[in-house]
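Collaborator request, handled under Task 6.
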Amino acid sequence: MALSMYQASIPQFKAMLTNLSAILKKAEEHATAHKIDPKVFMEARLFPDMLPLTKQVQIACDQPKNGFARLAGIEPPKYEDKEASFAELYERIAKTIAFIDTIKPEQIDGSEKKEIKFSIFEWNFEFVGDQYLLSWIIPNFYFHVATAHDILRHNGVPIGKNDYLGR
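Structure tokens returned to the collaborator:
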């Protein structure tokens, strides 16, 4: 039996978003224990030309939110990208998981050949459903989750691969 589009994606995205929230909780606890202003973590980057932690989390949430909405043919919820605290990042992740929970298998399964077209700033993208999931949504999602993890680890938060994997 072949793995469906839904089975290959939604459960893993929910698990990784849950792991991301747990990683952020460890960062918040670390900041409190070491009297570090949480803003230091919110604005932290791996390199000056990379996006800060807050934006990494926002984009990690946007990938499944927008991606699954496009595949399902529905309008994604709009988020304002104003998060400036751990609590607000937890809320964004929770809203994203709640939205993903509304997507039913029948909305995603069968979208393998669906035309997906969208723009980001001046760039225009065209995919078919399975290509969109496998070459856009999944790699972008994992890139931003991993980068958020790496920013926090680089800044001294005691997290590792098991935290990333939720073990």
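The cover message to the collaborator said: "The helical segments are 10-33, 38-42, 53-72, 86-102, 105-108, 129-154, 161-165. The beta strands are 115-120, 123-128. Please let us know whether this matches your experimental observations."
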